[in-house]
Amino acid sequence: MDVHCSTCNEPWDVYHLWHEAIFETGLSVHQAGDWGDVCDDDRQANNRALTEGTRLLSVYHSATGVKFWIITEADRSVTTLLLPEDY
C-alpha cells in the first residue's frame, strides 16, 4: 500500500513520523473493518463497499482528541490519511 501526505502529495517520510503512532493504529483497524466513529449510514456503506468495490471511509480520534479520517479509494489503489488541517 502506498501512503502519501495529503497536503504535500509526497510519500510518507521522516517529516511525518510524529503522525505515525496515531495513524498506525487507525490504519490497522481500518484494514480490519473497524470503521471507527462513522455514522450508521457510512458504516453500512463501508460494509457494502467490501463486496461492491466502492470507497471506504473511517473516522477516528487520537488519544489527545484529534479527529482524523482514513479514506480508501474504490479501486483500492490509494489510502489517504487526513487531519483537520488537511480538510
How would you concisely characterize the structure shown here?
With 87 residues, the protein is an alpha+beta fold. Helices cover 32% and strands 22% of the residues.
Task: Describe this protein's structure.
This protein has 87 residues and is an alpha+beta fold. Helices cover 32% and strands 22% of the residues. The chain has helices spanning 17-31, 40-52; strands spanning 3-5, 56-61, 67-72, 79-82. The mean pLDDT is 82. It contains two helices and four strands; from the N terminus they run βααβββ. The protein has one domain. The protein has a four-stranded mixed β-sheet with strand order 1-4-3-2.
- Structural class of the helices, strands and pairings? alpha+beta
Distance between the termini: 22 Å
Main sheet, how many strands, which sense, barrel? 4 strands, mixed
What general form does the structure show?
globular
Q: In total, how many beta strands?
A: 4
Low-confidence regions: none
Q: Which strand order spans the largest sheet, edge to edge or round the barrel?
A: 1-4-3-2
Domain count: the total is: 1
H/E order of the elements? EHHEEE
The average pLDDT is 82
Query: DSSP helix count?
Result: 2
Proportion of residues in helical segments: 25-40%
Radius of gyration: 13 Å
How much β-strand is present in the residues? 15-25%
